[in-house]
């Protein structure tokens, strides 16, 4: 109920702002909705949302997979951590725009370069979070697993995975918010489709209605994923801590 009231307040303030500043600076919600409906009827909205969502999912999945492997390696092996930590700091502090430009210059304006840029920008976030998770593993539980001669699979399933799950969920939540923003920049700079491409087109035409007509549906989609997928997953990932308490 509170969320509905909050959304109602958001649209009310938007409408007041549109009346105050005029449609040239801020179009009304109804005007944006009409543009959104027109784009949906033409098939443009659904197609470009789908393309962007596919890029988000591909980049996010690849970055989480590689980031989890590297993060666990760093957290469990101090020598590897000392060796690669400077590299990680460099990548963390390299602007996303620089990574995207280098990916396009080296690989060309193609889908592979776009995916590489998305993955590389998300990767250090996942590595840092999973490294902290690996460092926080309880050595006592490792000793217990050895005493009871757990197989590698049972040790992973019953000892390591439950402890790492909250860190993985946290990396997923923060990472998704980062990835979709990176995808928009990637599309704006070098792809012929997607939400970022259409927003760039709207910017060039100074069409605020078209800009918001593409921005808002994707923001709404990400909010739904955050609310109904990632937050419940994060809560369920920590069940054993609450249960143990």
For the structure shown, list the relevant keywords.
87% helix; mainly alpha; single chain; 11 helices; 245 residues; MetI-like fold
What this model shows, in words?
- The chain is mostly helical and 245 residues long.
- The chain has one domain (49-244): MetI-like (MetI-like fold), CATH 1.10.3720.
- Helices cover 87% and strands 0% of the residues.
- It has helices at 2-21, 29-42, 44-76, 78-92, 96-107, 111-135, 139-147, 152-190, 195-204, 208-237, 239-244.
- Helix 9 packs antiparallel against helix 10 (208-237).
- It is globular and about 70 Å long.
- The two termini are 30 Å apart.
- The mean pLDDT is 86.
Give a short synopsis of this structure.
This protein has 245 residues and is an all-alpha fold. It contains eleven helices and no strands.
Secondary structure blueprint with pairings:
Blueprint: H1 2-21, H2 29-42, H3 44-76, H4 78-92, H5 96-107, H6 111-135, H7 139-147, H8 152-190, H9 195-204, H10 208-237, H11 239-244
Quickly count the helices. Answer: 11
State the end-to-end distance: 30 Å
Q: What does the overall shape look like?
A: globular
For the secondary structure, the number of strands is 0
Strand content: under 5%
Radius of gyration: 22 Å
Q: How many distinct domains?
A: 1
Q: Write out the CATH superfamily name.
A: MetI-like
Biggest pleated-sheet summary: none
Low-confidence stretches: none
Q: If you average the pLDDT, what whole number results? A: 86
CATH class type: Mainly Alpha
**Broad structural category:** mainly alpha
